[in-house]
Amino acid sequence: RHLAPQISATQAMKFVASVACFAALAAAQTAPEIQGTTEVFPASNSTLYTYEGTTGPDLWHTLDPEWEICQSGQQQSPININPASAVEGRNVAIQFDYSPAPITISNNGKTLVFGGLDGNSISIEGRVFNLINIHFHATSEHTISQGSFPAEMHFVHQDADGALAVVGVMIREGAENAAFGNADRLKQLLPDKKGLMYSFDQTMALPGLLPNNRNYYHYMGSLTTPPCSENVAWHVMINSITMSPDQVRVLIPALQKLQYASSLGGTNRPVQPLAGRTVYTGQSPDGIPEAPATEPADPPAAPIPAATGTVTLAAITGEETEFDYSADGEKGPANWGSVTPICGTGRKQSPIDIVPLDVETGVITPIELDYADSYPVTVTNTGKGLLFPNTNGGTATIANRTLNLLQFHIHSLSEHTFQGGYYPMEIHFVHQDANDANQLAVLGVMIQEGEANPAFPDVNVLKQMLPTAKDTTHAFTAAIDYLDLMPADQTFFHYEGSLTTPPCSENVLWHVFEQPVTMSREQINAFLDVLQNVKYASEEGYTHRPVQPLFGRTVYKGYPADAAPTVQPTIPPTAVEVVNGDVMLEPSSNSTKYNYRADKGPDVWHTLAPEWDICMSGTEQSPIDIVTSDVASGVNTPIMMDYAPAPVSAVNKGSTLLLNFPATNTMAIGDRNFTLIQCHLHTTSEHTVNGASFPIEIHFVHADANSNLAVLGVMVQEGAASPVFPDIDRLNQIFPDQNGVVHETEELIQFEGLFPQDRSYYHYFGSLTTPPCAENVMWHVFREPITMSKEQLSVLLMKLNNLADASELGMSNRPVMPLGERTVYLGQNPEGLRTGNTEPPAAGSPAPEKTAGNLVFNLPKEGPTFNYTDLDWADITPEWDICASGQEQSPINIVHSNSVAGQAPQLTFSYTPTPLNIENNGKSLTLKGFDGNTMEIDGTTYDLVNIHMHHNSEHLFNGGAFPLEIHFVHADADGNLAVIGVMVEEGAANTAIPGDLKTFAQVFPGTKYVDYEFPTISIDMTKWLPAARSFYHYMGSLTTPPCSENVKWHVMQNPITMSRDQMSILLSAFKALDTASEFG
């Protein structure tokens, strides 16, 4: 339950006050040039940082030598501001010279940035600081008395000498803020993709973003993102501003979904040590220091020249020659030989018709694209097409050849055809060899109608940006992420060819992607409206050259073997050993062969052997498409893994890459035990989620004593590197390249690292995904993927794509099969796992709830119910009218300056370690079974009834919340209640529950009315109490219906800590609660 109007359900968002860290000053903002060492934003091509993992705040200092101060600095920001410790400073008002402005809003992946603020400034003791940008963090970066707010705005200012002054404004829920407009309007204006910029079509009243009372806390600190420069005069407003619940429901999710936010949606850097600094209320005695004097920065390196030698950018675009696309004209494609002879006589001309049956299988070679996240773009109407020149760097690396990106341009129709068929458009990304200026490489991308392409999010803006007159150039208002114009599957056809316009030079290595990218019909029409009307288009409006003869050239899928890079394995091959026992996982080595190609592929597996008929006739076949909206709630039974690091044998079976493990690794689901047999890989993923695939899926195959199989499916996506394979070269050596070869490893593989931290899973009954397709598999597909780096994925995908039995496209996955009448559960099937021919036991009834005397702490399941989305509890039943009419309701906002010094009765806790018994009642996670544990206050003994938790904290400290609050509920013999409230913040790991995260993650049930009992795991409740036990006391109520006003509240002044990992697990559990708000 949350306060009104100060705070309500909306502040119960993924409130990662201590578990996350967020962006600060935006790279996408067009700020004035920064002088001296004042670098507000890292350069757009500088080192990437994020808010989690190896590029997160804890490791920012390792990412760039110039960012070392992020760890070593003594004046880092943000900080925790303790009002009681703030020193009274000089009463200096900040003069805000803000006026309504037609602002822009940019999404740079790390924050949302307001730009277009020229002419706005502040003045502090006569010093003028110009407003550069306004941006947001969620949750707040600064904390007040260790409590956080849902969001914090930073108004970044800079004076003429480069000194920075930042005004921090906290945002809480309350009255609607007129400056933002209503929630629907705000939603339209917040860009949801990195690189997008939207413009307000009316002015924003900037003063409305500031509190009316502008008193402030002041201290000297730093930027809160790299490079963490310590030259910032911070002015954090004591008073917050409000946004309505609807406005908050728009702003906070927009911040949580930023590309570089943490996995929990956190967008703030954790607080930093104060390190002896003084925080003032008002200005410091010495005022704001001047900007430090510095040496001038080195001039930027000269850009790579577009071309040298005989290849020029003009030649590539055809600007040096006069030609057109007329079908029968003197300067049309049929007569280009008269313009440049090789256009008519060359034997390596482009484009060509690509016939898949004639394509030679080469080595699937990855293309490593090293483009910046986004580029500012100009587009020119050349009269022959649309040209997007590139002066921003960016390379493609193919087969150890580094290629500089020069430009891209668009043709209509496609120039290359596939078995004679055209696409509406084709994009050519033109690159030049870094070591040979005369060697070009072009990436050809086909465009087909489908989903809108995020590179051009606003069709109306796109139409305005495309120039319709020859020799006209327009600059896009928003940067473009070139990777949005590349297909996810970068399998390509390769051949040696030429430029497709005069001078038709035959020095081009062509790479035509097999898979197209999509644009919406509106996007395609925007381009075609211009392309079909360029000056030199054909009579039909086309700007493409007809296909040219191959003249004996070979088209490869991938690179020819002698041109592809190779890595020699250092592990000696050994003979394959057949290890399978009684569990028939796949056909024996002398049985019928299958593959993933057309001749013996999935569509005909049922015809290859009589016993494989079930591959077609079966009703419980795998894999399936998991449609999350159709998933039923199951029982959240944890999967208990007992895996130990071990050496493995890696096998190339022709159809997959397989790891064999020692038969000592087990896992348990409920009371069922399974032994790990092996794991293997598929590409792309066999299971899909809402129709979407992942690059790789790993299957961990287990069997019980009766040969029943349980398979754990783990999806793999690109992201942070997997710690299981830290050495890329070693990863390449572990997995054999040739069919039938085994590599034995000597080092121990920590393969439990191949599972996600969040172990929630989808469960259904299915089959093996390869012949014999036996339907005896209990599938558990983890909801969250794991990540591997681009380099790790490239190694594995290259090996999988080249498996002897892979499809023509390099795939080794069976298509999804019909679900039929089966049900997919989030969690375990309520009827339990199958046990061969034995009927599963009937589902048991939930255990009765405990009560103490006449007190009911959890509502009967059959009675009225409530949730945290609709807080009008008094309207649900007359018995709960006191929730609205009561005069002693809880929780409250505890304002330290308003608290009255009282007596100091001692709280005496007689707690002993107790076996863990935890219940999910849909509204909280509740620990029970504390008979014999008591607390004494002034001679009165109270029995501990239960312990439960809330996210965010229910009580506020000076308006700020904590990520978690723990309630210790006690009752005396007469039924009077005394509740201890303990706040939780991020810090050292808490040892109340055993410290290993595997156990920690498995004790919290994720299904409503599920009760877990762990007789071998004890909880030491004293570890959930702070060492210093001074408290705030008041008379209040239960914070959930029936809201009875008979509670003596004792809210501890000091919080306890949990580690970031512990906090992440708990917050994930709260998000899944049945009655939680949309923010968890």
Keywords:
13-stranded mixed beta sheet, Carbonic Anhydrase II, 27% strand, 10% helix, mainly beta, disordered N terminus, CA_dom_sf, 1080 residues, 15 helices, metal-binding
Quick summary of this structure?
This protein has 1080 residues and is mainly beta. The chain has 4 domains: 13-281, Alpha carbonic anhydrase (Carbonic Anhydrase II); 313-557, Alpha carbonic anhydrase (Carbonic Anhydrase II), CATH 3.10.200; 602-826, Alpha carbonic anhydrase (Carbonic Anhydrase II, Roll); 873-1071, Carbonic Anhydrase II (Roll). Strands 2, 3, 4, 5, 6, 7, 9, 10, 11, 12, 13, 14 and 15 form a 13-stranded mixed sheet that branches. Strands 17, 18, 19, 20, 21, 22, 24, 25, 26, 27, 28, 29 and 30 form a 13-stranded mixed sheet that branches.
Describe the structure.
It is an enzyme of class 4 (lyase). Reversible hydration of carbon dioxide. Residues 1-28 form the signal peptide. This protein is mostly beta strands and 1080 residues long. It has 4 domains: 13-281, Carbonic Anhydrase II; 313-557, Carbonic Anhydrase II (Roll), CATH 3.10.200; 602-826, Alpha carbonic anhydrase (Carbonic Anhydrase II, Roll), CATH 3.10.200.10; 873-1071, Alpha carbonic anhydrase (Carbonic Anhydrase II, Roll). 10% of the residues lie in helices and 27% in strands. The protein contains 15 helices and 58 strands. The strands form 8 sheets. Strands 2, 3, 4, 5, 6, 7, 9, 10, 11, 12, 13, 14 and 15 form a 13-stranded mixed sheet that branches. Strands 17, 18, 19, 20, 21, 22, 24, 25, 26, 27, 28, 29 and 30 form a 13-stranded mixed sheet that branches. β6 and β7 (127-137) form a beta hairpin. α3 runs parallel beside α4. The protein is globular, with a radius of gyration of 32 Å. The relative contact order is 0.10. Mean pLDDT is 82; it is low at 2-39, 41-45, 294-315, 564-584, 586-590 and 837-861.
